[in-house]
Write a structure and sequence with these properties.
single chain; 114 residues; mainly beta; six-stranded mixed β-sheet; 10 strands
Amino acid sequence: QVKFVESGGGLVQPGGSLRLSCAASGSIFSIHAMGWYRQAPGKQRELVAQISSLGITNYADSVKGRFIISRDNTKDTVHLQMNSLKPEDTAAYYCNRPTAITSWGQGTQVTVSS
């Protein structure tokens, strides 16, 4: 069974940075595209960044130029470097496979507030 464990969230001031990590297990990690999603209270979950098996990245307009997604296929992990954080980035963040969605992990909470 595929499992994702997200970590790295926390409370940060506007303009600050955080680096999220997602550890995957239970499948052949390297052949799948991976994505970071977020869900704010009262809103639908949205895909904010994705990286293909070959390392091609794509970002939602709301985070383009501020977030960087990367992956390490030797460690079955995917990261999200978040810079210039804004209050509207506050959400629970999750990782999953955009082209083969499976069970969601517990997520990691990011709160951007002064």
